[in-house]
Every structure is written in structure tokens, then in C-alpha cells.
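Table 4 source record.
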Amino acid sequence: MMRLYIRINGGIRLFFPIPIGIAKLGCRLVNTSIVRKNIPQDTIQYIDCIDFKKLIESLDILKEYKGLKLVDVHSSDGTELTIII
């Protein structure tokens, strides 16, 4: 289970528990033609750089490291994003 914490401008706090299986399903869906045609052309180049098969494999490996903090970002306007396995 991945946990996604978002704090917007120090006031609004959001928490999303995301099962690893749902994250892997999302990785598979991004590479489908239905989703790709709805992605703007200026950002499609970034999606093409990602190897989704390796990303799905790494999610399987990361399940063993419960409590690992993957992302911890703080912006200047007070918005924070944290992703923990």
C-alpha cells in the first residue's frame, strides 16, 4: 500500500491510500492508445521516456520496503507532497 500525502498552502491536507496493484494497473493504462490520445503533444515526449515494464517490476520490489519515503517535495508556496510505501 502506497500512501500519498498532499498539503496545500499549509491548510488543506489530503491523504490517499493507493494499493500497489492499482498503481501497476495505472502504469499499464498510460501506455494504451485511448489514454495516449488524450495526453497533450508537448508532454507526450516525457511519457515516451518512461519504461513502464521496468516501472511495474520496480513496484513489485518496493513492496518489500514498507515505510520507505519515495518522494518528499516542498514548494515555496507551502505545498507539500509525500509518497511513502
